[in-house]
Amino acid sequence: MSAAAEASGVRPEHAPQLHPRRWAALGVIAISQLMVVLDATIVNIALPSARVDLGITEADQQWVVTAYTLAFGGLLLLGGRIADYWGRKRTFMVGAVGFAAASAIGGLATTGPLLFGARALQGVFGALLAPASLALLTVLFTEARERAKAFAVYGAIAGGGSAVGLLLGGVLTEYASWRWCLLVNIPIALLALALAIPLVPESKADGDTSYDVPGTIVVTLGLASLVYGFTEAAKPDKGWDSGTTLAFIGAGLLLLVIFVLIERSSRNPLLPLRIVLDRNRGGAYLTSMLVGAGLFGAFLFLTLYLQNVLAYTPLEAGFASLPTTVGVLISATLASNLLPRIGPKILMLVGPVLAAAGMISLRFIDLDTSFWAHLMPAQLLLGLGLGFTFVPLSSLALVGVPSHDAGAASAALNATQQVGGSLGTALLNTIATSAISAYVAGQLTPGQPPSQRVLLEAQVDGYADAFTWAAGLILLAGVITALLIKVGKEDLPSGEAAVHVG
What we know:
The protein is mostly helical. The chain folds into two domains: 3-211 and 268-497, Growth Hormone, Chain: A, CATH 1.20.1250; 212-267.
């Protein structure tokens, strides 16, 4: 019996039958997951229009992205537990309805703070929707090859959904309004809801189903404090050495330490440490966080570069992001076929190297970089790397997880990517802003304002620095994989490790 089967406690003779509507249910889950993932980037291309329309400052514009990823990442662990205990289908449906409502509020927002609040509310309901989706996959697909295909779909969406968001955001901003980047979620969510009712089965965990409220509050406040600290560091009048910056970062780290202590002593923790302390799952979560940190920040600066420096229209910027999606689709397909044969480790070593190579290539942008000769191949490499990384990650994070913890383990994977995205966006924004300010200061002529060319060169310099750091974060993910991941193909979840479908 495999390690996964032993850990699950489910013997082969007790494995449940395959669910007859599992492939149709996968389609419903894919629709909802795409909506959640692309919403992290769909507003990137709409940012310049929304900022002008609502009077949002450049310093605060990142909150349109960060408010979503922070609420999403901070509450995903609780969302995973709610899905386990309350019912995965029920949680999925409530998440879809709430996501649609929050999208309506954001699409009709008349002020910047209202838009930030709506984005945070989207994150709250996304934190119900996403872990319920992945947990449903674990109970619907129990045969090894089928599960690999299902996770290939999920991994392709996780890696390529962000790029799809950029394209869709460009189309909607160009031909309708930036507001439709939010309003478009309403029909998508309602479609997923209507299909889920007849096609998706209910399932839930047995045993102790109490909630860890103190842990939820502390970890969410800790993550918010960290992100706010990084944001303060980006402000010209603050910086890394300001008291405000250091206080928020210090408070965030302290709260995260307190969270770990709470989890150690809690009878039914939000994030059971046994899930994280397994070297393979822990390695998967660290990899997910680092790749998310590099990925979300890079997409933000790529779209700003395309529009602010190369003067692409929103639609052109959206289409210019397509090579990443193409790369993800190619590598996700290959990874799904290779995963049962060679296991996850080789794929998770190749993926970060390819993605980092694409990111390093973006480091050499200038004022008139060619799309076909430079940007296209760089993004294609990035996409290939993401697909090879996210497909095995989705499966690896659930190796040996018993049914009771399926939602928590699924949520932890989503949370690490979103938390990484929040922290990465804030950190890379700080790095880019600092580089831009330093470049302008170095080119100033006494008594004269900087020229338009100097301002554009400064942006290129800042974005290049951000791409360099993003490449470093992704390469570090490859190092983590090399050191921690020991799972072989025989340990991947199979029919023997199935969990019960209720």
